[in-house]
């Protein structure tokens, strides 16, 4: 059977208008990527891939037919292209779109040029990531300590983002004030000498049992209280918890 080509011509537009729109979209994408990168909180554990791909949707693995369906209203969709990756398509589009006139119109569209630029950007990211990984550079600390010749192999745009991320990771993080636990000493310098004393049984009819409490004392007051002979079923403690005091 002959392969059916479902390509339909795209609407023609003025070249200057298309070029202006493409440049505007490229500038907008660059500004958006910079904004997202600046909003990302980098740490010493952030890897190189997360820095370069922050805020981007990976389009490199999208299939050709999916792209044509979503972005170009299904123009150019054929069954044999369902497993073709966009990277392969943009490398040699004439191999997959045989109608030259339709391909020319498709290549003049803003959506085509925008996707081509996105795929090319991902290829560049992957190449730089691969170069750095081959040199043992996988995260921001590795990038900061990398030799000059290793950094020189990375494209300037990617180098800029990695430098900015490394600088962000080196900034001290804001820490919250330590939580003060009631009944615990902040340090030995403000500790007070205390001791445990026996409490009376209370109402005989209620049989509350013997309790114990904690009282402020002096250096020589230890050991002068009676030993507790009965464990209380209900312990009565003061604000400073007994187990935290140097009795």
Automatic annotation (TrEMBL):
Compositional bias of kind Polar residues: 217-226
Residue span, DUF7578 domain: 58-121
Location of the region described as Disordered in the Swiss-Prot/TrEMBL record: 201-226
**The name this protein goes by in its record:** Putative retrotransposon hot spot protein (RHS)
Q: Report the source organism.
A: Trypanosoma cruzi
Phylogenetic lineage: Eukaryota, Discoba, Euglenozoa, Kinetoplastea, Metakinetoplastina
């Amino acid at each position: 059977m002959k392969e059916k080509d479902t390509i339909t011509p795209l609407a023609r537009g003025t070249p200057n208008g298309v070029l202006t729109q493409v440049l505007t979209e490229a500038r907008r994408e660059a500004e958006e990527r910079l904004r997202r990168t600046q909003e990302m909180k980098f740490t010493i554990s952030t890897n190189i891939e997360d820095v370069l791909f922050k805020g981007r949707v990976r389009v490199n693995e999208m299939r050709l037919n999916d792209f044509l369906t979503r972005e170009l209203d299904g123009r150019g969709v054929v069954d044999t292209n369902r497993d073709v990756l966009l990277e392969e398509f943009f490398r040699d589009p004439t191999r997959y779109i045989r109608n030259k006139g339709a391909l020319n119109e498709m290549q003049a569209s803003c959506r085509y040029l925008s996707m081509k630029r996105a795929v090319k950007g991902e290829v560049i990211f992957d190449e730089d990531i691969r170069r750095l990984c081959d040199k043992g550079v996988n995260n921001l600390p590795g990038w900061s300590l990398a030799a000059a010749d290793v950094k020189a192999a990375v494209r300037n745009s990617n180098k800029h983002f990695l430098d900015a991320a490394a600088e962000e990771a080196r900034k001290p993080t804001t820490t919250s004030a330590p939580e003060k636990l009631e009944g615990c000493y902040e340090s030995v310098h403000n500790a007070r000498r205390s001791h445990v004393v026996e409490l009376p049984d209370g109402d005989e009819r209620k049989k509350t049992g013997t309790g114990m409490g904690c009282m402020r004392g002096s250096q020589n007051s230890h050991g002068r209280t009676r030993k507790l002979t009965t464990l209380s079923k209900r312990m009565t403690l003061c604000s400073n918890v007994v187990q935290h005091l140097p009795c």
